[in-house]
Write a structure and sequence with these properties.
Shape: globular
CATH topology of the largest domain: Nucleotidyltransferase, domain 5
Distance between the termini: 7 Å
Structural class: alpha/beta
Helix content: 25-40%
Order of helices and strands: EEEEHEEEHEHEEEEEHHHEHEH
Strand content: 15-25%
Radius of gyration: 18 Å
CATH class of the largest domain: Alpha Beta
CATH architecture of the largest domain: 2-Layer Sandwich
């Protein structure tokens, strides 16, 4: 975290690595918003560690002094344990077993903290978005190609929950309830909502959340499907949308120093 004087808000820097793009921006950590316009560069193909690290260096270098001199937060589409990728979703399988934090720290010459992409979004929503000020259990599900998840309890993240892979009626949940399944099978909003109802009912029975947040690109059309769901907990769309990953990663890095 960078603080220049009493009148300058605390700032951080976040990078969001996805299967199609690497996005980055400086973040105003007081407001939970970008302090400069976001930059996006396509993820290299094949998306092997050295190639992605070069793109991460390029996006950070682009911002010059605006990137600050403190730690950088990076999201990654994988289970992350102590900086090491244990899975790989929409990136090359060679990432499995890679110390992502160490690779980026060496590439950038500054401290880097790495977090699962859905976890970063959940952390951002808890601190600045739809779950701000909410006590108890919050579950966030990002509905896209798969289903990412984040579990936050009294504002504290429980990492790597991977709730999209729950077995529901004999199926990996995301194969039937992700937004990609809706598109692939040409489901109506009502048809898809029935699958979401079943999925979120299982999540509720396991975790008894006080709030459920739906993220991912389809959350922009939340009015089409959220009113069709009937759950114990309130279910609301994410507020930070596609900015959440960068903001959450920057906040995590500032916390860890």
């Amino acid at each position: 975290m960078t603080v220049t004087n009493d009148s300058t808000p605390p700032s951080g820097f976040g990078v969001d690595i996805g299967g199609s793009g690497v996005k980055a921006a400086p973040v105003d950590l007081q407001a939970g918003a970008f302090s400069h316009e976001r930059l996006r560069i396509p993820t290299p193909s094949p998306s092997m560690p050295a190639a992605v690290a070069t793109v991460v260096r390029d996006v950070v270098t682009h911002f010059g002094s605006a990137s600050g001199d403190g730690p950088i937060g990076v999201t990654f589409p994988a289970v992350i344990q102590n900086g090491v990728a244990r899975t790989a979703a929409n990136v090359d399988a060679s990432w499995i077993g890679t110390d992502v934090a160490q690779l980026f720290t060496a590439t950038l010459g500054r401290s880097v903290h790495v977090i699962n992409d859905a976890d970063a979004a959940g952390l951002a929503e808890a601190r600045y978005g739809a779950a701000r000020g909410i006590r108890g259990v919050v579950v966030m599900a990002t509905l896209g190609t798969g289903i990412g998840s984040a579990l936050v309890i009294d504002g504290t993240l429980v990492p790597n929950t991977e709730l999209g892979h729950l077995q529901v009626d004999g199926h990996d949940a995301e194969t039937r309830a992700a937004d990609s399944a809706r598109e692939r099978e040409c489901l109506s909003w009502h048809e898809w909502a029935k699958r979401l109802q079943r999925y979120f009912s299982v999540v509720e029975d396991l975790f008894w959340p006080d709030l459920i947040i739906v993220g991912g690109g389809v959350s922009k059309k939340a009015a089409e499907f959220l009113p069709l769901l009937h759950l114990r907990a309130p279910i609301v769309p994410a507020q930070l949308r596609n900015d959440a990953g960068i903001i959450g990663a920057a906040a995590l890095a500032a916390d860890r120093g």
